[in-house]
Amino acid sequence: MFGFSSSRRHNRIRESFSDRVVYCITILVMILVLIITLYPFLYVLSMSLSDQGSVLRQEVWLLPKGFNLKSYKKVFSDSSIWVAYGNTLYYTIVGTIVNVIFTCMTAYPLSRRRFWGRNFISLLIVFTTLFSGGMIPNFLLIKNLGLYNTRWAMILPNAISVFNMILARTFFMGIPESLMESASIDGAGEGTILWKIVVPLSKPIVAVLTLFYAVGHWNSYFNALLYVPDIKLQPLQMYLVKLLVLAQDQLAEGDGDLLQLAMEAMQTKYATIIVVILPILCIYPFLQKYFAQGVMIGAIKE
Amino acid sequence: MKKHFARLLVVSLLAASFLLTSCKSGGGDSSSTPSGNSSETSTVSNNSSEADSSTPSADQPYDLPIVTDGSVTISISSPDCKVKGYSYTDGLPVWTKLEEETGIKIDWRVTPSSDYDSVIQTQLAAGVDLADFIDVPDGSPMKYVNDGLIVPITEQLEKYGYYTKQYFEANPYMRPFVTGPDGEVYFFSSDIAGSYLTDPGCWMIREDWLEKFDLDMPETLDDWYNCWKTFLEQDANGNGERDEIPFLTGDIVSALGDTYGLNTDIESNGWMVDENGKVQYGYAQPELKEFLTWANKIYSEGLMSQDFANRDADTTNKQLGQGLVGSTTSLVNYIAQYNKLLESSNIDGKYVAVPTPPKKDANSDPSIVPIGGPTVLTWGFSKDCDDLDTKFKFIDYCYASQSAVYGMCFGIEGQSYEIGSDGLPVYTSYALDNPDMGMVSVIRSLGGMPYFPFTRALNGYWSHGVLQTNKEDPELTQAAENMQPYLTQAFPRRMLMTEDETATYGQYMSDIETRVKEMMVNFVMGRESLDKFDDYVDGLYSMGLDKVLEVRQAQYDRYLEALK
Amino acid sequence: MANSTSAIARKKMRTTPKKALFYIKRDRMLWLLILPGLAYFIIFKYVPMFGVLMAFEDYRPSKGILGSQWVGLRYFLDFFHSAYFSRLVRNTILISVYSLLWGFPVPIIFALFLNELRDGPFKKVVQTVSYLPHFISVVVLVGMVQSFLNPYDGIVNVIIKSLGGTPINFLSEPSWFRTIYVVSGIWQNFGYDSIIYLSAISAVDPQLYEAARVDGAKRLQIMFHVTLPGILPTVIIMLILRFGSIMSVGFEKVNLLYSPATYETADVISTYVYRRGVLDGQFSFSTAVDFFNSVINLILICTVNKISRKVSETSLW
Lengths: 302, 564, 317
Fold this sequence. Notes:
The complex is a heterotrimer.
Chain A: H1 4-10, H2 17-49, H3 52-56, H4 70-77, H5 80-111, H6 118-127, H7 135-144, H8 162-174, H9 177-185, H10 190-201, H11 203-219, H12 222-227, H13 236-253, H14 258-291, H15 294-301
Helix pairs in contact in A: 2-14, 5-8, 5-11, 5-13, 8-11, 11-14, 13-14
Chain B: H1 3-10, E1 73-79, H2 93-102, E2 105-111, H3 116-126, E3 133-136, H4 141-146, H5 154-160, H6 162-170, E4 187-191, H7 195-198, E5 201-206, H8 207-212, H9 221-233, E6 245-248, H10 252-256, E7 271-273, E8 279-281, H11 287-300, H12 313-321, E9 325-331, H13 334-344, E10 351-353, E11 369-371, E12 375-381, H14 388-400, H15 402-410, E13 417-419, E14 425-427, H16 429-432, H17 439-446, H18 464-467, H19 474-483, E15 487-489, H20 499-525, H21 533-542, H22 545-563
Parallel strand pairs in B: 1-2, 1-3, 6-9, 11-15
Antiparallel strand pairs in B: 3-12, 4-12, 5-9, 5-10, 7-8, 13-14
Chain C: H1 2-13, H2 17-26, H3 28-46, E1 57-58, H4 64-67, E2 69-70, H5 74-80, H6 85-103, H7 105-116, H8 121-130, H9 138-149, H10 155-162, H11 174-201, H12 206-214, H13 219-243, H14 251-257, H15 263-266, H16 269-277, H17 283-312
Antiparallel strand pairs in C: 1-2
Helix pairs in contact in C: 5-17, 6-11, 7-11, 8-11, 9-14, 11-13, 13-17, 14-16, 16-17
């Protein structure tokens, strides 16, 4: 409603010829982008649905030839996939909440110009992106903190991403200091300023942080590998990697009908994509409407 | 380049492991089949009655169950079961049975096989809270010994290794490979020496194409060349296109380099011993230049896979299934696989094993067929293992007792195998004709063919698993027998090195191998002129090849010493 | 306004300990807020940083990081003396630079054009589809690349053949490797990377657009004179950050994509370390190489930051 695009729609009647040409080109480019991004997915999908002979004879280019769901079912037949799903949901939700809270709590003071030492602390934080001690000290740390083989090992070691912290800090710095100063002249303490002024304005940054962190958790795999050996605690990605590797291994070993194995390896490949992408696809439109509020922030700015 | 070929070989129906590096098996005469030995194994225990009862000795079996009160749990670090939906942590039948027999419980600490090495290396480097029994990364097991992470087990072996000692006696080639340079025994390892007898590497060709053009079975490299040329130029698959792949290979130097006596096969990987007993590197021998000249001709005339440098299993199977491939190299059992692939793709064709390995020319000997192993993968007891004696007994039992060996190779009696009329185990149709998965996966789903040391040896009941391979198929049996006279033990690459040797080896060899792999591709593809061959060899020496040769020489000398 | 405030802040920075204590006390609420974050960075980032010592010692698990024998620069020299050192550094930097050169502008351009679309289902679809590839694992991505580029029947070569060309063995040609790496990387990430720019665009002041439109500016003019300057600070910060990872070309994708045939252009530092370390856990060596990379990255990011501060008045610090 408040987006500038709607106000632009208002002005559409005045669009010049050249503008319309540009708009058409834009649409064409976007259609091209759509094709380039979608084609590989369509190709793999068609390959995985087609009957085996057509795949082998390379007859599939766009749409499936024949129909075959047999080994597709296999991928979803195992009940442990739901345990893995549950774990990933847990890590994504709890992890993202922890991330967003920690990130904002760190970023906000660093955005306040009156905060003594903020430059020094910011530099200290940025520095950690450049140097790390490597896997062994991290592993020892996780063990010593008692996080090994607990759900927290999936959440705490990546509580704050420096990039996202900078993002949040930049956002908070965009909130006019004058707003806060006038509030504090009116006798409001820091707590009141934070709660009454900053938090209500923070939806866009929280939306962006949520998306970035949630996607990170959704795709994360390495921490589970090193820190969470218990299968009951492992996330979906771990489960899918196992599936993928097993299918490829069996194919390489040739244990069973090679054709069958090749099909299964391919279908597993495809199924993993679907399983991973679908849920996260649902998050985005939900967050998208908060991105649009970036405009409203802009409006308040002056 | 070798990625694909290695993978094919690696996971033969017998080798339940992911990295099959190699070495020659010591004692056994490779050309004798192990079948005659089955009777002697049952008599081994007869000569052990004089043991002094006050000091424990491995001449007497320990009581079963080893522990009666269920107080002992052994933790084992290993990759997880390779069948989808099955995990060792779920208590697979073979292991449940072993747990019942011994009274010892297992705490499996498993990781997906693809990532096992990076996980266990981190844990070992951190050095805390290790599992009792660990699948150690293969590269440098002695490093972990020197770090004090893996403990010696010579004493336990002498005192409690009742079954393992019998197995070592029946298969004397094995012990040197689990003994460190200091003479102490540190490791357990899977034995794959037997697999090469019934399932060796071979060269296979489309029989129907040979008949179509009235060609004889190729023997010399010239014969092979003529076959390939005919396949390609006379449109062997008859589709009017020049799309045949006469020789499908991921690495021609490894597939055919042995015809020039270069030991460049996957098992020796270039390491060879000359007539003076000196270790040489096949990839730096002058004969290689001549071979590469030939290989370059094969490549540039389109007679071999044009994408050999980056092949994957998907493409290989696709091309085989499309009926494009005239010949290739693989393990014998793959002949059946590939024929099935042709059949299910409705292609009227058949692969057969060529009865003699290729030879350089009419006057040369046929190429050797390498025997790798005998060991594959390495397991050791960690410093964090308490009650080592009891746990050693458990591993001893699981490694070499007949009950355990049958479990590992055949799964569960009455389900996946039964004892046949000749007293030997045979797979049931549950294992062989399972609609859900292949035979190996069936056994693995029961807990067999595990990521745990087990034996497919040359002699005794430890070799029974081997006997089953290809038994059903007379053609494959014949093909394997044809290769017997040419089976030759590969360089003992898997003799344990000292830590210094490993360090030297690692420091120089990674650069050398990079150079070798790269230059082989460049020479074969003709990107680099063979006039540069001498520069290439000089380059290897300037990268420290002589230092690596010293390491290999020391390793080989120790091997000879151990055989005495 | 912002400038004057930060000038005051800077003046305040030069403080006596007594005054510092005063500020801390005054802003105790802010300090309370930042404490968990600070604790996080100290515990999870700075404590393990002692691990870099391993680069200078012959690390032994039994002796620990503090007790292992000091070997100074041995592992660094090992690395520098490798026959391939210069090639590895060159390949690493070139892959990074090409990824930056081609990959960096794409999400920005995409975001700018996407912003031109009217709100509606088409825009939503394009946007959502564009970041689908981000969720494909590297293994699957490389599998797709291999099947599309297969010299026998990959679709790219089928097209080349049908146009009368000779098929190209893409994955065996050193000259193609960087292109394949960079293009597949752009395909996988441009949509997802554009999110940050899209949200930056939506924070541009709408009044600026109104004003431009009143002045009769055309679409493209608005894009170049309003939108782009509006998101420029974001662009610059993103660019500076990218320079902090020039030496860190990831191992996984290259390892799956390369072969000895393409080592010439494809072998990078991380794959080399992997091949060397695979023999045994050579943690000291790989830590040394990581440390070397970090130092180069640090130098690069500082330099770029400085240049940016002078040229554009936007900088990371």
